[in-house]
């Protein structure tokens, strides 16, 4: 077994690719006063308290929207449905406006809503923690919509249809 000093980034990435995750897009409103929508693909998401209804996700400090995410007051988590691969490509790219040409509504709190998702969870930012290369953002659930659609999964560095795995 390799020690932590000899484990390469690629070895770690390959090992973690064996952990199936859901795929989400998180949307919010820019805090720079422009009222522009922001969005990011996220699979580092977890429930941390059922009683207080808290979730945790992380944003990389190298993300072009990092400075926005650590300051937003509310955000909307979209669990992608298995037929929404095109949204992953759109929101994973580094671009000034990931919403260009995309029709969307807004929640009462202002977050952009992407249609057709499996689950929507709007949260208020509860706490932000700094790590060496990411920020951990804890959100407190404010609204929940379960559309009961099969979710998209990410496994072995591939997007999978959850219905094909059952």
Nutshell version of this structure?
The chain has 166 residues and is mainly beta. It contains three helices and twelve strands.
Tell me what you see in this structure:
It is a single chain. The chain has one domain: Roll (Pnp Oxidase, Chain A). The strands form three sheets. The protein has a seven-stranded antiparallel β-sheet. A three-stranded antiparallel β-sheet has the order 1-11-12, with no helix packed on it. A two-stranded antiparallel ribbon has the order 7-8. The radius of gyration is 16 Å and the shape is globular. With 166 residues, it is mostly beta strands. β4 and β5 form a beta hairpin. The longest helix is centred in the first third of the chain and has 8 residues. The protein has three helices and twelve strands; from the N terminus they run αβββββαβαββββββ.
Characteristics of this structure?
166 residues, mainly beta, Pnp Oxidase, Chain A, seven-stranded antiparallel beta sheet, three-stranded antiparallel beta sheet, 3 helices, globular
